[in-house]
Amino acid sequence: MKIKGKAVKLNIYIIFVVIAMVWGLAMSILVPVGQTPDEYSHFSFMLEDVGTNKLFPEDRDEFYISAGLRETAAEKAGFDTEAYFRDGMKTYSHGLFELPLQISPGIIKFLPGAIGFHIGVMLRLPMLICHQLAELVALIYYILICTIALKKMPYKKEVLMFVMLMPMAIQQAGSINPDVMVNSSAFLMTAMIFDFKTREKKVGWKDIILVMILSLILLIGKMVYLPIVLGILIVPSERFSLPIGKKFELQTFIRKYWIAVVILMLILIAGGLYVTRGNEFVKTLLITMSHPLKFLMLVKTTLGMLRDFYLQTMVGCFGWLDIYVSYTFIVFFMIFMLYVMLFASHEDIELQKGFSLKNRLYLILLVLIMFALIMCSMTIWSFKISGYDLGAGLTEYGGYLNNTGFIQGVQGRYFIPFLPMLLVSIGEGNEYKSKKLYRGVQIAFYLVSMIYTLGLIKLRYWG
Question: What is the pTM of this model?
Answer without folding.
Answer: 0.92
